[in-house]
Q: What sequence folds into this?
């Protein structure tokens, strides 16, 4: 696309400048439309989402499906604060992946429960 616009711009600068501008507008429009569709799909499923703390594991309900995380898979717990307020919690797993918990109603209480369930794994 860049080569075609460059060659066309040398032949007819006025026409290809307009073409370039409209192509950028269309690309950004299509990308934002795609992001909007993903956001709307996420917002439909987020209402069904909840977390349950069970002995030895953390259970997630999302879109009617339960999944479980055994606490023995967690290698570290990180709390991220901004201006004194807890923003999100990150659970680091032994396979070097992470789970980010954010947007829950009582995040401070969830953090305290996870700290009690995962002694010695808290990282700043």
A:
């Amino acid at each position: 696309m860049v080569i075609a616009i460059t060659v066309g711009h040398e032949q007819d600068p006025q026409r290809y400048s307009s073409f370039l501008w409209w192509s950028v507008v269309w690309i950004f429009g299509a990308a934002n439309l795609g992001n909007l569709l993903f956001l709307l799909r996420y917002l439909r499923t987020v209402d069904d989402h909840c977390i349950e703390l069970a002995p030895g594991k953390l259970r997630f309900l999302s879109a009617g499906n339960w999944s479980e995380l055994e606490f023995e898979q967690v290698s570290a717990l990180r709390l991220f604060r901004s201006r004194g307020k807890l923003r999100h919690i990150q659970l680091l797993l032994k396979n070097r992946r992470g789970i980010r918990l954010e947007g829950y109603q009582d995040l401070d209480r969830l953090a305290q429960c996870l700290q009690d369930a995962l002694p010695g794994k808290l990282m700043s």
User: Anything to note?
Assistant: The chain is about 45% helix and 35% strand. The chain has a mean pLDDT of 85. Helices lie at 2-11, 13-46, 107-117. The CA atoms of residues 27 and 100 lie 31 Å apart.
